[in-house]
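Quick one, T. Sequence first:
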Amino acid sequence: MIKYIATDLDGTLFYPRDKKHLVCKENLFFVQSFIDNGGKLILVSGRSIDYGKKVESIIGRDCVLIGYNGAVLFDNNKVLRSDSIDKEEAKEIIDDINKTYKVPAVIIMTEQGMYIHTRKHYEIMRFFYSIYNKLQGMYGEIFHKSEEEFNNAFNNDKIYKIMFFVGVTNRKKRQAMELNKMIRNAYSNIESAWCNQVIEISAENCSKGSGIREYCKLNNIKDDEICVVGDSGNDIPMFKEFPENSFCMSRAPETIQKYAKYTIDKYEDLSRYLIKK
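Structure tokens:
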């Protein structure tokens, strides 16, 4: 019997987008009903824990929060896991990627928000990303756009995630996927995931799959009691970790769908499967 749903946010629980309510009414009704009938919802995201708390408040029910692609696990007002990226490793990776692949922008995520660094002649990227984040409305994270703020955060805060922004076109999306493969082969002491035109780096053994597995171990949850659902490259680790009850949104690329056992068109389609279980 499925007692837990571990769900991605963007493109999954947030699909279709509802910029007024964050979670559309059909998806909100489904997860609220699941929780009210004894289930537990695990919000698994590349986003911050603070953003997870925001989603939890809109759902109006207690949820488990796994943020920064598994780097932080938060439940019952307690941090149960917190793994940041070593500063020397972060500097080495950023320097290597900038030197070798010349990506336009690097973004780091800390508890205080997102910070951006751009290569020379790409300063326009910080303003582009700032505007883009504002246009996201309720879906935007706390964003700091100055180079000084980036340097201060890098030196003084815990870095939970590094993102390399490759570009905006479909060609750049394909390049990002290939670059992610190269990074995974080159560095054995980090986790790397591909998400559209962005490559996401977290500390070693920090992925959505490992974050959920940690929660399961702490609470004696069996694999057949949990299902996972997502739509992007950083969801692949949870598809691999829990293959029997893995769901991918049908709008996701085939390169991602192939890792999940099932595909669904709409989020509430999960209900048909849960009834069978």
